[in-house]
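ARCHIVE CARD
CATEGORY: sequence design from structure
SOURCE FIELD: tokenized fold
FIELD CONTENT:
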């Protein structure tokens, strides 16, 4: 879902805002219920582990259906802000994951799982959170789109660099998996929207809910796979995820401030940096490492939606702090790029 920035008096925007608020309220609950069910009935979901890559592909296809030419064109219109967002995303979250894994002295499988979450592209719900926080939605969509499109190259390289000391990393196989489960489905979704506009337009209202249900199903499968170790590892994993997500949200906003972007853009970057595609991380962890390595992804999937909704509600109640100096500096920086 990629909400648009329109007048607050626009009835369509008001309806979209209601749908977005409902989604961010229901989605964490749905994921939590899925996790509990997966934990209590692991034998039901464990055999479904091979289906996780296909489920992720379905989510990314839905993401592709929501992308429009204006979304992609916005990258060219504001390259400085988009590049800043991409660099912040792929520096802050991988670095924070590595630092947290070391500081908490996580066992190798959990350390790789935390780092892998940090190396994933932006989360699929980040655009909604930016919308609710009165942030720059166009920038949010642009950063999320580009971070996803370059993930087949960037994510495996970062995992190899930061997690290679914990477990053997097959970066080449990881590249192929991301191409198959992320890049190709997104491209197919974009093409489907281009050549089947009417059908896609009718399907768009249900896409956020379809994605939420599929993500919840992935969480149930991941939790089921590590249910036997969840009681022992759950506390330290939640602490790692809490720190990871908190650093991402805070440092993402700070990156926008250091880059002299306006307040709406800073709000967008907070979510683009702090929210990860935990479904992709869970898929890669399951395929290349172990169910235990996928546990941080499952916990992150729940927590970043809860924290994102809380932070978005808090920011929405704060006035937009744009000064002429900041806006002029940001405009000048973009024109000089």
């Amino acid at each position: 879902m990629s909400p648009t920035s329109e007048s607050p008096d626009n009835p369509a925007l008001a309806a979209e805002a209601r749908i977005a608020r409902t989604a961010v309220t229901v989605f964490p609950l749905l994921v939590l219920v899925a996790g509990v069910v997966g934990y209590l009935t692991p034998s039901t979901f464990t055999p479904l582990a091979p289906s996780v890559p296909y489920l992720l592909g379905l989510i990314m296809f839905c993401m592709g259906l929501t992308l429009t030419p204006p979304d992609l064109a916005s990258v060219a219109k504001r390259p400085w802000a988009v590049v800043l967002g991409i660099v912040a995303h792929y520096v802050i979250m991988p670095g924070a994951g590595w630092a947290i894994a070391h500081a908490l002295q996580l066992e190798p499988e959990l350390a790789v799982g935390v780092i892998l979450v940090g190396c994933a592209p932006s989360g699929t719900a980040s655009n909604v959170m930016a919308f609710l926080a009165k942030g720059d939605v166009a920038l949010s969509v642009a950063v999320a789109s580009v971070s996803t499109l370059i993930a087949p190259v960037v994510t495996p390289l970062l995992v190899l660099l930061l997690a290679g000391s914990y477990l053997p990393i097959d970066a080449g196989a990881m590249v192929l998996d991301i191409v198959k489960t992320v890049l190709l489905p997104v491209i197919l979704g974009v093409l489907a929207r281009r050549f089947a506009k009417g059908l896609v337009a009718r399907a768009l209202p249900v896409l956020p809910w379809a994605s939420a249900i599929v993500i919840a199903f992935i969480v149930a499968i991941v939790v089921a796979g590590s249910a036997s170790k969840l009681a022992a590892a759950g506390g330290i994993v939640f602490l790692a995820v809490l720190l990871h997500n908190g650093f991402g949200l805070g440092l993402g906003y700070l990156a926008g401030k250091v880059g002299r972007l306006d307040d709406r853009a800073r709000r967008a970057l907070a979510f683009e940096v702090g929210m990860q595609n935990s479904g992709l991380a869970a898929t890669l962890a399951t395929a290349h490492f172990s169910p235990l390595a996928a546990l941080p992804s499952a916990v992150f999937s729940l927590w970043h939606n809860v924290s994102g909704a809380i932070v978005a509600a808090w920011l929405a109640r704060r006035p937009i702090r744009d000064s002429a100096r900041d806006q002029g500096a940001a405009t000048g920086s973009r024109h000089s790029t």
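CARD ANNOTATION: Residues 323-337 have pLDDT under 50 and may be disordered. The chain is about 80% helix and 0% strand.
SHELF: design records, drawer C
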